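Appendix B. One record, verbatim.
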Amino acid sequence: MDYERAAFVQQEYRFATSEDLSVLANYPNAVERIFNTQLNSTDATALASSLLDTLKVPATIYEVELDSMIMSDDLAGSLPRYNATFPAFNVTNKPTKLISLETDFLSQRTTIRVRT
């Protein structure tokens, strides 16, 4: 038995917080984001800082349905990045990052969400 891990798990609350008061000043209705993980304190703090750096910048999210399936094996190594072109929204070759995907095995299609 790993006694250090057991002591860690028995702690009722474990939080790592990262905040930028300028975000709240610029966006008074900004919501607090909570991500539940099982990370240790060091890794949780690093993740909180990384997420804050990403999420404090305004972005646009596009949802796109693909005529093919993306499987979890396709994500090995790193998340894909796409250059999006949406003529209806006057978007041409804009770099985006994958933030979520949903694969429908019956229709053999995948719905992705990408963030600018």
